[in-house]
From TrEMBL:
Function summary: Catalyzes amidations at positions B, D, E, and G on adenosylcobyrinic A,C-diamide. NH(2) groups are provided by glutamine, and one molecule of ATP is hydrogenolyzed for each amidation.
Protein name (record): Cobyric acid synthase
Gene label: cobQ
Family named by the database record: Belongs to the CobB/CobQ family. CobQ subfamily.
Domain CobQ/CobB/MinD/ParA nucleotide binding: 1-209
The keyword Metal-binding belongs to this UniProt entry's keyword annotation: no
Domain of life: Bacteria
Lineage, uppermost ranks: Bacteria, Bacillati, Actinomycetota, Actinomycetes, Streptosporangiales
Domain CobB/CobQ-like glutamine amidotransferase intervals: 230-403
Length: 474
């Protein structure tokens, strides 16, 4: 919708009051926001900024998340605080929304999870809490590919209190496969039962993918070439910024898989240790599964290993956390010892957009980390990190999106892996992302009633929307 509206000349901004994701991005002013909102800003042709994602929760464990407020670190929140300890976060989110609304024609607000999470409604500021704050008309989007979409949509409205129900203006079906004519009777019945319209049905497009937001996107990118260079990415429990791998997935002769056990690592040409929000805990996880031995044997055989941010820190000698940034204060653990560097965590987070060169090509990236790297030997410098032969470590997320560097690095690691005939693709990654965003805009224009949605955004909630009781029909 951001791209479709922007192409119509509407000044549009994306907004998500709270995002829970370990995939994030650094804005030009140094603020950190969710990767999804950064891409949505590109779609809107707007400069990404902190107000577009005022609260970012980065899970460090199942019960604790690190908090980023308006682009800056703001401590941590425990799971037991979710029900009532988020007043300050709500205030920041509402202020950011009000600011954007004053500067743009339309603000497209993405919810989180389901608006019918009734156990959390009292403290909600992301879904209906936000809608009530701004008097925002709401469209419920259902992913029909996961099944149960009619029950989910009708049930969502029915579970809400009447004041919330009055803001639900209608529905959109997403990721539909097949003949829409077969779906129409269900759409008609949903409109009749709910008293709300369906604004359209977006088709499933298997060739369409965007910068990944969360673990639901960890499917890899498989090549159709039998002799493809096989890249295995370790699937850490707290994997973060795995959008670093997206550019490899666009290469026609590269096969990207995510590996959660030793078997999945076997036969890889290149092993990647990606970023993680819990470096020490995920290094322990790697060792408990014996995957560290596979990585070490792979490197000893002269085959390429790449570590990015937390993955790079694991490749070093020692990791210390004196202030308990990741958990227990004073934690210290030996790394894999593959690169002559040490890591020390600091409460002050590094957020920056570095530029440089490597392998004869310009490189851009972004840094988001608490770990400070200290070289301990004579390892060659490599993109804010270190290199020893075919073992590479970098603190620069996003570096593989630099096309010239990516192709040069792929040629180098392919040669080390025995693929002397490897030929990288010619696709410009930034252009490819733009074409994907334009395709999304095309799909919205073709399959949704965008005029009605724009009217909804500018005119507000239509009057007379009925209230529903659970299980009721009209």
């Amino acid at each position: 919708m951001c791209r479709a509206l922007a192409r119509r000349g509407v000044r549009v901004a994306p907004f998500k009051a709270q995002n829970m994701s370990n995939n994030s991005m650094v804005c030009a002013d140094g603020a950190e926001i969710g990767r999804a909102q950064w891409v949505q800003a590109l779609a809107a042709r707007a400069e990404p900024e902190a107000a577009m994602n005022p609260v970012l929760l980065k899970p460090g464990s199942d019960r604790r998340s690190h908090v980023v407020v308006m682009g800056e670190p703001a401590g941590a929140i425990e799971s037991y605080e979710f029900a009532g300890g988020r007043v300050r976060l709500a205030e920041a989110a509402f202020a950011a929304y009000d600011d954007l609304r004053s500067r743009f024609d339309v603000v497209v607000c993405e919810g989180a999870g389901s608006p019918a999470e009734i156990n959390l409604r009292a403290s909600d500021y992301v879904n209906m809490g936000l809608a009530r704050h701004g008097g925002i008309p709401v469209v419920v989007v259902g992913d029909i590919d996961r099944g149960g979409v009619f029950a989910a949509m009708h049930g969502t409205v029915a579970l809400l209190e009447p004041a919330d129900q009055r803001l639900i203006a209608g529905f959109v079906i997403n990721k539909f496969r097949g003949d829409v004519g077969l779906l129409k009777p269900g759409l008609d019945m949903l409109e009749e039962l709910s008293g709300r319209r369906v604004f359209g049905v977006l088709p499933w497009r298997p060739d369409l993918w965007l910068d990944s937001e969360d673990a639901l996107d960890l499917e890899g990118r498989r090549s159709t070439h039998q002799a493809a260079l096989r890249v295995a990415v370790v699937r850490f429990p707290r994997i973060s910024n795995f959008t670093d791998i997206d550019a490899l997935g666009t290469e026609p002769d590269v096969d990207v898989v995510f590996a959660g056990n030793t078997r999945a690592l076997q036969g890889a040409d290149v092993i990647v240790l990606p970023g993680t929000r819990a470096t020490i805990a995920d290094l322990r996880w790697l060792r408990e599964r014996g995957m560290d031995e596979v990585v070490l044997a792979h490197a000893r055989a002269g085959r390429p290993v790449l570590g990015i941010c937390g993955g790079f820190q694991m490749l070093g000698r020692m990791i210390t956390d004196p202030d308990g940034v990741e958990g227990a204060a004073g934690a210290s653990v030996e790394g894999l010892g593959m690169l002559e560097v040490d890591t020390r965590f600091s409460p002050q987070k590094v957020l920056r957009l570095p530029e440089g060169s490597a392998l004869g090509h310009p490189v851009e990236g972004y840094e988001i980390h608490h770990g400070r790297i200290t070289p301990a030997g004579g390892a060659e410098e490599f993109l804010g990190g270190a290199r020893d032969g075919a073992v590479y470590g970098t603190m620069w997320h996003g570096s593989l999106e630099s096309d010239g560097f990516r192709r040069a690095w792929l040629r180098e690691v392919a040669s080390a892996a025995g693929h002397e005939d490897f030929t990288p693709g010619t696709e410009d990654f930034a252009d490819l992302r733009e074409r994907r965003l334009d395709l999304l805009g095309d799909l919205v224009e073709e399959h949704l009633d965008l005029d009605a949605l724009l009217e909804l955004a500018t005119e507000g909630v239509p009057p007379g929307l009925p209230s529903l009781e659970p299980g009721a029909s009209r």
